[in-house]
Amino acid sequence: MAPLADRLRPRRLDEFVGQRHLLGEGKILHRLLSQSLYQSLILWGPSGCGKTTLAHLIALHTEGHFMALSAVTAGTKEIRQAVEEARRVWASARKRSWLFMDEIHRLNKAQQDVLLPHVEKGALYLLGATTENPSFEIIRPLLSRCHVLILEPLSEDDLAQVIVRALSDSERGLGLLRPMLTEDALKLLVQAAGGDARVALNLLETVVLSTPPQADGVRRVEASAVLDVMERPAHYDKSGEEHYNLISAFHKSLRGGDPDAALYWMARMLQAGEDPLYIGRRLVVAASEDVGLADPFALVLAMNAVRAFELLGSPEGELHLAQAVVYVSLAPKSNSVYKALRSARECARKTPYDPVPFHLRNAPTALLKELGYGKGYRYPHDDPQGWVPEVYMPETVKGSVFFEPSVRGWEGKWKEALERRRALVKKQKS
């Protein structure tokens, strides 16, 4: 009686499809599981990419006690009950416990505060699943005690593999019905799923069950039958574009300064049933990644458009998104901050243990002062100009330049002053 998507849920790791960047040999999750290591994890990814399945498989593979809660319905009472259950299991069987918290971003701060000390002390290990950015939704102390794993939408090959398995599996799948999909029908199903295995299997089950068997008992599924049951309008993929192609066209139109094209792609996605807040999130990304400090107000407007949509909903809220689309499209563009962050991350990755210079260290005790902490530090506000030439980096990377402002918009106003400051620092310390 269970839906196909539930019946086909993988029972072993070797049945799991996708997420090779996590489960491939030598990758982070493969290393953890191969050694049966316990580590609290946050599984962050879109719907239908395997978060819940992967959580079950992690617990199964490590032979841990598995408990499941949903943040939609669970409160502090249920969390405390799970902690007590974990303690009983450990006392009686010396078995560690996993707590799977679905939609963990829905927990409020008080509920997360209740969970935190038990995760911190190892009373249980957390497996959180979320479609939302955990850095925005989960309190920092709890997030710092978890490893965040980013799951990706399933690729077309992955989805095709899931569908073919469902067609051939006679025990849990549709094999006994003798279905046969044409190549066009399979391609359409894959495109309609948009990286979501659950959508793919729900569509597949509906189209197979609604297709009558022929004289030979075979249920031949044509592309036209798939079109009849698709959850999204057929025109969403009529030119072969899938979800990620459309959002890519939208983002590139914003970056390219074409408000007409950006509005068109937004309208296409909205008409197809795309989540308007997803479009809003892409606007926020473009406002920083492509506009940046050339026009800082673009980020303000994009964020306010998202908040306005959350307040008003459709259709009124879509006007605010459109306003932000036009503004971000027309704003001067700069990706200098994007490149600066990427360069800084690469430098930090190569120098994770370089000591903080003594003059930058805080000296709250007499002993630290005697050791030279804070010695020689000059307080910029004491200078009439509010700035002093100083080195703020470790010796090994002194003089590194990450941020190179463009001449466009607001950045152009800062470019000359920043170059002059860097030259003074270089001259004084050379």
From TrEMBL:
Family annotation (InterPro entries): AAA+_ATPase (IPR003593), AAA_assoc_2 (IPR032423), AAA_ATPase_RarA/MGS1/WRNIP1 (IPR051314), ATPase_AAA_core (IPR003959), DNA_pol3_clamp-load_cplx_C (IPR008921), MgsA_C (IPR021886), P-loop_NTPase (IPR027417)
Keyword ATP-binding: yes
Pfam families attached to this UniProt entry: AAA, AAA_assoc_2, MgsA_C
Alphabetized GO MF terms: ATP binding; ATP hydrolysis activity; DNA binding; enzyme activator activity; single-stranded DNA helicase activity
Keyword terms, alphabetized: ATP-binding, DNA replication, Nucleotide-binding
Domain called AAA+ ATPase: residue spans: 37-154
Domain of life: Bacteria
Transmembrane segment boundaries: none
One biological process term in Gene Ontology: DNA-templated DNA replication
Function: DNA-dependent ATPase that plays important roles in cellular responses to stalled DNA replication processes.
Family as reported in the entry's similarity comment: Belongs to the AAA ATPase family. RarA/MGS1/WRNIP1 subfamily.
Name of the protein in its database record: Replication-associated recombination protein A
UniProt source species: Desulfosoma caldarium
